[in-house]
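Researcher: Last one for today. Full complex below.
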Amino acid sequence: MGLVQDFSLSAIEEYFNKHGQSIAMSFYNASARNVGTEIGSALHIGGTVSKNLGKTMPFIGGVIDFAGQIADGENVVDAANKSVLHGISGVIVGVGVAAILPASAPVVATIAVGVLVGSAVNAGIDYLYDNAGNIVDSVGDFFGSLF
Amino acid sequence: MKKKRYIFIGNNHSRTIALYFDVLNEAFITKKGNELSNLSWIIIILVAILGNFLRPLKQMYFSQNFFFLLSIIIFVGCLVSIGMVKLLSKGEQSSHIEEVNLSPDELKEFLVQGKNSVNAGIIMTILIFLLMITFPIIFYYDRNVYMFLITLTTIPLFVFFLQTTDYKRRRRLLKKLEERK
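Model: Here's the assembly. Have a good evening.
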């Protein structure tokens, strides 16, 4: 154990001796660009956040979904799995609804239809996820009783 | 039932224009579209928020007979569907239309998108139909208010997609237009 520790510590030391300066420089450059004392830096950060807000939107939905399930007493792993499944179904429903409905349909109606379909699909996914074992058992029992 | 005057052909690639066929005047007409680039993300967020609001309903149970509740679901579902069909036909009449002449290339773009739209419509209608059949079975075992509302929702949704996809008429029209092209 001691040998492994000594070796890894000396390897880390060696690595930082070699690359320490370049790592420090890149940190300095990044912080100078983003967190300077000038107002320009603050504007830069604001601009970057607003530019990337669209990219974070799916995560916001996932986080709301995940947090709601945890608050409801759901297991962390199950909540994470269900949130991912809900995300995937949301993307598919969104693409499907956009493809089916005429572009001239009112925005509110398009979103309402998407939300209703999404809720129904998610209810089905949750039920399947929670009762997959029971469903397989009952189907097995049913076919077993036939033969 | 009144015959539909405008048959939806498809949207253009960027989803900014919807092309219809006027059966009465045998002409193409366009309606301006509303671009929705983040529809999937909006749906994910709103479904998550709605799910959080409706979650307490999963703990509220009905004590009534299942068949009584199912008949209420069917009755209300059919009423909502009838109202929705009327609203859809009213919306069709009131929106702003513009007659256009299309080049073969432009028409081809709409036809390709239209075909995809019909196929997606069929898949969605089948999915909702399966949910409409499955949810009453789930509701039988899990008689909570949330499941009641979700089961009720599937009936108008099924009618809506059946109406919007308009499979028979659109398929026939797309075939006819492709032959004419």
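Chain B is about 65% helix and 10% strand. The beta strands of chain B are 6-11, 17-22, 27-32, 98-100.
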